[in-house]
Specification:
single chain, alpha+beta, Beta-Lactamase, Arc Repressor Mutant, subunit A, 2 domains, 5-stranded antiparallel β-sheet
Length: 199
């Protein structure tokens, strides 16, 4: 028997928090002043996932980064043109997890990186992307499950109307739709209240 969703989600979140502790160590190793992890979709920042306490003026930082993160085509670290940022990007499709290190010294991001450091940051970006993709999929699954449950209620209410009043399937559907409009309630809620009153 596997973990329940809430337990699995909590374990993923705890694991990601541990990765952010490692990210702070990498920040110290690089001599960076700050680190920012965010999602970018179609060249726009969507959600800030993590920022070090030293990260100042986050919105300003994102504007500076915007022109740079789209240039990272092969996944290798990229220095900003002015040397103030070092960017790592990982993602699939149109959504990317971006890890940005900010430097006080304009040439701070031009240092050579150890392969282990690059691998660590890419692993953290990938883990961030995976955790948030899993969260998005769980939300989507819950929405689909809710809609399916409502659809089943509507079908049961239609069957009941057909049996009780001798209506066709289309007439039963129209009856539910009319009640839904009159009561200003979603059809699933109307069907649920009908079924509860009939049982």
């Amino acid at each position: 028997m596997g973990l329940r969703d809430s337990e699995a989600g909590g374990a993923l979140e705890r694991s990601l928090r541990r990765e952010f502790i490692v990210l702070e160590r990498v920040r110290d190793e690089l001599g960076a002043r700050s680190v920012l992890v965010f999602f970018a979709r179609d060249g726009e920042a969507v959600q800030i996932v993590y920022r070090s306490p030293e990260t100042e003026q986050t919105e300003h930082s994102l504007l500076l980064l915007k022109s740079e993160w789209g240039k990272d085509v092969d996944g290798s670290p990229r220095s900003a043109a002015d040397g103030s940022f070092l960017l790592f990007r990982w993602g699939v499709r149109m959504v990317n997890a971006v890890v940005a290190f900010g430097f006080a010294d304009r040439n701070g991001s031009r240092m050579s990186l150890r392969a282990e450091t690059t691998d660590t940051v890419h692993r953290i970006a990938m883990a961030t992307w995976c955790v948030y993709e899993i969260r998005r999929l769980r939300t989507e699954l819950a929405t689909v499950s809710e809609r399916l449950g409502r659809r089943k209620l509507i079908e049961r209410a239609k069957a009941f109307l057909q049996a009780k009043h001798g209506l066709t399937e289309q007439q039963a559907y129209e009856q539910l739709r009319m009640l839904s409009r009159q009561r200003r309630m979603p059809m699933g809620d109307v069907a649920e209240s009908m079924l509860q009153s009939w049982s």
